[in-house]
C-alpha cells in the first residue's frame, strides 16, 4: 500500500480521538538554526484531513489494526475496515515534509494496540525520539499513552512529547468492563498517576521538562447509560486526582456491525457541547457538579439552554447583583459574563462607577446580563419576574435592539 493510501486510512481513523488540542505547550522556535519547527504554546487547530486542506496538527494513528475488541471502537479487531500501518520512518518523514510545506505545526500520534502494550508504546516513543534527536524538530508533539505499558517507556515518552494522554474511555468502570473487557480501569488510572507524579517532579531530560503541556483524557458520551451528572462527577474526580489539563468528551456514534450492547442512535452533539460548557463552569467559574446538574432531576443537562443560564434561572433569588459592588465569585455566575470580562469589570470599577454604556464598551451582551445586574442607570425590576424570561433571553433578530423595554 502506498503512503497516500495509508494516510487516507489512518488520518480518517484518528478523527474519533478529540483530545489533541495543543494549549499549554512550551514556546519554542528554530531561530538559532539548530533545529526545525516551532511551537507557539497557544491553542491551535487539531486535525488533518487528507483532502489537502491546511491544518495545524498532523493527526494520525500509527496503525488502525488492534488486538483488542472494544465494542464501541471502529478499529476493534472484529471490525471489517481497511487496515493500514505506518512505519516509524514514514511518520517522521510525513511530519517533516508537512511542516516544511506549512501544513502543520506539530504531530498528534495515537495507535491501535500492536502485539502488546509495550511494543506499541515503544513504536510511538521511537517516532518522537527520532523527530527530536535526529531532526531537531521543535514543533508540538502529543503522544497517546498505552495503559499497561512499561513505566520506563511512559517516562521516556514524556521526555519528547509536549502532552501525553491516557483515555479513560467510558465514565463508568463497569461499562468499560462490559464493552472493553481487555482494558482495565486500574491500569488506566495507574498510568495517569505515573504521569501526574512525573509532571509534578518536572525532571529535566535532554534540556526539556517532562510533558510541559500536561496530560489529558477522553470520555465517550452516550455509549452507556451514564447520565451527565455521573460524567461530570467522573471528570471532577479526574481533575482533582490527576491534575489533568483537559477532559474531552466525544459523542458516541453508531459504527458498522455494532454490538447489540450499544445504542442504536447517536448521542446528540449538543449534549457533548453542554458537557464542555459544564466542564468550563467547574474549572473556571467555581461551580460544583451538584449545582450544575441539580439533584432530584434526571441527572441530565438541558439541551436547549446552556448550564450557566439554567442555574441562574433556578436561583433568581440571588439576583440582581450590583455590578459595582458584587464580588468576583458572584459576577462569574452571571449569564453573559466570562472570566476576562469579569476581571475587566473589576479593574474598571476601581476608577469609576460603571453604567450600561461602560458594559457595552466591554463587549458585554446587554440583553443577556440585563435581568441579572443592577447599574446606576438600570434596575431590572420586572425582568426577573417574567415567566417567559428563558424565551426572552433568546430573542429573534427583530427584537435585539429593544434592550430594556421590559425593565
Main sheet record = 6 strands, parallel
**Percent of sequence in beta strands:** 5-15%
Number of helices: 15
In order across it, which strands form the biggest sheet? 1-2-3-4-5-6
Structure description:
There is one protein chain. The protein is α/β, with parallel strands linked by helices. 36% of the residues lie in helices and 9% in strands. The strands form two sheets. A six-stranded parallel sheet has the order 1-2-3-4-5-6. Strands 7-8 form a two-stranded parallel sheet. The longest helix has 18 residues, at 117-134. It starts with a helix and ends in a 15-residue tail after the last helix. Mean pLDDT is 86; it is low at 39-55 and 397-407.
Task: Offer a concise description of the structure.
The protein is an alpha/beta fold and 407 residues long. It has helices at residues 3-13, 88-100, 117-134, 151-160, 173-179, 185-201, 228-242, 269-284, 289-292, 307-314, 328-331, 339-348, 356-361, 366-369, 389-392, and strands at 57-61, 106-110, 140-144, 163-165, 215-221, 246-251, 321-322, 373-374.
Amino acid at each position: 500500500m502506498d503512503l497516500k493510501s495509508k494516510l487516507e486510512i489512518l488520518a480518517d481513523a484518528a478523527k474519533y480521538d478529540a483530545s489533541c488540542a495543543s494549549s499549554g505547550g512550551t514556546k519554542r522556535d528554530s531561530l538559532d538554526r539548530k533545529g526545525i519547527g516551532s511551537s507557539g504554546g497557544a491553542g491551535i487547530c487539531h486535525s488533518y484531513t487528507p483532502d489537502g486542506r491546511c491544518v495545524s496538527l498532523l493527526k494520525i494513528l500509527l496503525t488502525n489494526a488492534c488486538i483488542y475488541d472494544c465494542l464501541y471502537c471502529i478499529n476493534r479487531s472484529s471490525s471489517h475496515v481497511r487496515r493500514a500501518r505506518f512505519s516509524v520512518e514514514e511518520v517522521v518523514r510525513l511530519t517533516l515534509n508537512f511542516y516544511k510545506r506549512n501544513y502543520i505545526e506539530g504531530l498528534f500520534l495515537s495507535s491501535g494496540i500492536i502485539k502488546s502494550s509495550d511494543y506499541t508504546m515503544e513504536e510511538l516513543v521511537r517516532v518522537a525520539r527520532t523527530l527530536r534527536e535526529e531532526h531537531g524538530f521543535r514543533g508540538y508533539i502529543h503522544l497517546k499513552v498505552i495503559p499497561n505499558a512499561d513505566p520506563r517507556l511512559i517516562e521516556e515518552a514524556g521526555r519528547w512529547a509536549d502532552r501525553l494522554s491516557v483515555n479513560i474511555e467510558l465514565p463508568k468502570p463497569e461499562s468499560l468492563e462490559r464493552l472493553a473487557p481487555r482494558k482495565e480501569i486500574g491500569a488506566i488510572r495507574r498510568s495517569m498517576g505515573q504521569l501526574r507524579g512525573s509532571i509534578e517532579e518536572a525532571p529535566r531530560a535532554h534540556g526539556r521538562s517532562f510533558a510541559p503541556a500536561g496530560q489529558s483524557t477522553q470520555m465517550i458520551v452516550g455509549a452507556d447509560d451514564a447520565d451527565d451528572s455521573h460524567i461530570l462527577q467522573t471528570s471532577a474526580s479526574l481533575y482533582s486526582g490527576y491534575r489533568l489539563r483537559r477532559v474531552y468528551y466525544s459523542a458516541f456514534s453508531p459504527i458498522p456491525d455494532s454490538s447489540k450492547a450499544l445504542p442504536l442512535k447517536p448521542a446528540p452533539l449538543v449534549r457533548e457541547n453542554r458537557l464542555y460548557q459544564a466542564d468550563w463552569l467547574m474549572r473556571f467559574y467555581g461551580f460544583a457538579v451538584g449545582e450544575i446538574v441539580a439533584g432530584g432531576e434526571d441527572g441530565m443537562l438541558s439541551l436547549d439552554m446552556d448550564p450557566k443560564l439554567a442555574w441562574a434561572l433556578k436561583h433568581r433569588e440571588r439576583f440582581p447583583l450590583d455590578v459595582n459592588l458584587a464580588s468576583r465569585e458572584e459576577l462569574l455566575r452571571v449569564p453573559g459574563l466570562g472570566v476576562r470580562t469579569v476581571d475587566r469589570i473589576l479593574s474598571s470599577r476601581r476608577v469609576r462607577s460603571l453604567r450600561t454604556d461602560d458594559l457595552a464598551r466591554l463587549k458585554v451582551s446587554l440583553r443577556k446580563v440585563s435581568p441579572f445586574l443592577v447599574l446606576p442607570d438600570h434596575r431590572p425590576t420586572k425582568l426577573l419576574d417574567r415567566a417567559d424570561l428563558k424565551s426572552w433571553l433568546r430573542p429573534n433578530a427583530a427584537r435585539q435592539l429593544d434592550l430594556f423595554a421590559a425593565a
